[in-house]
Amino acid sequence: MKIGIVGLGLIGGSLAIALSESGKHEVFGFDRNRSSVLAAKMVNAIKGELNDETIGECDVIFIALYPQATIDYVEANASKIKKGAIVTDCGGVKRMICAPCEKIAEENGFTFIGAHPMAGTQFSGFGHAKANLFKGATMILTPKDNTDIRILQSLRTVLDDAGFASVNLTSPEEHDKVIAFTSQLPHIISNAYVKSPEAIHQKGFSAGSYRDLTRVSKLNSTMWTELFFENSDNLTKEIDFLIEKLGEYSAALKAGDKEGLIALLDEGTDSKKQAK
Q1: pLDDT digits over 214-239, tens only?
Q2: How many CB atoms lie within 10 A of CB 231?
Q3: pLDDT tens digit sequence for 169-218
Q4: Euclidean distance between CA atoms 73 and 33, whole angstroms
Q5: Residue 106, SS3?
Q6: What region does 163 belong to: left with phi over 0, alpha with psi -120 to 50, or beta?
Q7: 3-class DSSP state for residue 215?
Q8: How buried is residue 233: exposed, middle or buried, by Cβ count under 10 Å (0-12/13-18/19+)?
C-alpha cells in the first residue's frame, strides 16, 4: 500500500520507520518542520514527501497532529484525498476529532476512523522515533457503527505491519471517558506530585515507586493542555473523585484512626485486584 503520514514526530515518525522497514508499503511523509522531513528521508523512513500530488495516491493516511490541527488538515485536504482511502488520526481525544472528520470524509468519498495508539515515551520529535515503539501495543479504533468490515480489515493489516499486537474497538464517547482515568489523570497526578518542595531532596531516598510515579511529570504542556480541555468533563470528574479519596486518607491520619486507614488501604488493594 501507499501510506501517507502527516506529522513526523515521535508517533508519526515511528509509524513511518516501522511501516517502511516492513517492506510492504511505500511511505510518504509531511511535517511543517523541514528538518524532520529531511531526517526521515536520510534514514529511509519515507520514500518521498506527502504533498498535493502524492496525497491522492495514498491508500491510508495517518495524521499525527494535535486535535485541532488534525481537523484543520482533513478539512483543508479533503478534496485531494483519494476516493475510498482510509484516513485515521493518532490523537488522545476522540469526540472532538471524530465528529467533524467523519462528516468531511463522508462528503468527500473516503473513510475517517478515529484512532489512539497506546504507546509513547516522555520524549518527543523524530529524533526519538523508533521502529519498535508499537511492538506489542494496542491501537484503539473508534469506527462508525456502519463501517465496512473490509475497511477495518485493511487498516488492521497496516497496523499489524507497524507492530501493534491488538486492536480495541470502542466509541469516541467511551474512549474519552476511559482515557481520562487511564492516561490524562496520571499525567496530572505526576505533574502535581513533583511540585512538592521535597522533590529536590529525593536523590538517594527514592526507588521504583518514585520513578514510576514521576515518569510522565515532564510533558508537552501545549499539547496536553489541549487534550485536557477537550476532555474536561470526564477529566474533572476523575480529579474531583481523587481529591475526595485523598481527603479520606488525610482525615484518618489526622484523627489517629488506624482502623479507618487500614480499611482504606484494604479497599484500594481490593480495587486493584478487581481491575486486573
Answers
A1: 999 998 899 999 999 999 999 999 99
A2: 24
A3: 999 999 999 999 999 999 999 999 999 999 888 888 888 899 999 999 99
A4: 15
A5: helix
A6: left
A7: coil
A8: exposed
